[in-house]
Amino acid sequence: MKNIKWTDLLIFVIIAELVGTVSGIVSGGSFGAYYDTIAMPPFSPPGWLFPVVWTILYALMGVSAYLIHSSDAPAKKQALDIYWLQLLANFLWSPAFFGIRSFGTAVAVVIVMLVLIAIMLAVFGKIRRSAVWLNIPYLVWTVFAAYLTIGAYVLNG
Fold first, then answer.
1. Number of domains present in the structure of the chain
2. What's the rounded Cα separation, in Å, for the pair 8 and 44?
C-alpha cells in the first residue's frame, strides 16, 4: 500500500465501531444482566468477552473496508456496497437478540450475516487479499455467534 490516508482510515474504523455502539444502545444496553438469565449452549463465553471481541472485530472490518476504498479496482463500489449491507445485518443482530428478545429473528439475522460475509470475502478477495485476511476472525466469530444464537433459540424457544 502506497500512501495511507489516515483520515479516511480513521473514518472507516470509527463508522464500524459506531455501528456496534449504536446497535448496543438501540438494544437497551443491559446485555450482561439478560445474558446471565438465559440458557446458553456449551462453550458459551462470559458476557464481558463480547464487547472486547466485537471492538477488535469492528476495527478490523473498518481497516479492511479502507483497503478496498483506497484501491483502484473497478469492483470497489460493489465490494463496499456489500460491506455496508453486511454491516447493516450486523447492526440488526443485537436489537433482535437483546432488544426484542426474539431468538428466531436473531437466528435469521445471523444466517443472513454469514451469507453476506461470505459474499463480501469473495468480492474483497478479487481486490485485496489482505482485506480478506483481516475479516477471517470476523467470519470465525460470526460462525461461533451463529452456534450460540441457534443454541439460545433451541434452549429457550
1. 1
2. 36
* Position 36 in a domain: yes
Quick one: angle between helices 103-125 and 76-94, nearest 10? 160
Range of the domain at 132: 6-156
CATH number at residue 107: 1.20.1260.100
40, part of any domain: yes
| Domain-located, residue 69 | yes
Burial class of residue 108 in the structure, from the number of CB atoms within 10 Å of its CB (0-12 exposed, 13-18 middle, 19+ buried): middle
Q: How far is CA 12 from CA 141, 149, 151, in A?
A: 21, 28, 33
Per-residue pLDDT tens, the chain, 157 aa: give them.
578 999 999 999 999 999 999 998 998 876 768 888 999 999 999 988 999 999 999 999 999 999 999 999 999 999 999 999 999 999 999 999 999 999 999 999 999 999 999 999 999 999 999 999 999 999 999 999 999 999 999 999 7
* Grid coordinates belonging to 89: 445485518
- Answer whether 114's CB lies under 8 Å from 73's CB: no
Cell 500512501 maps to which residue? 3
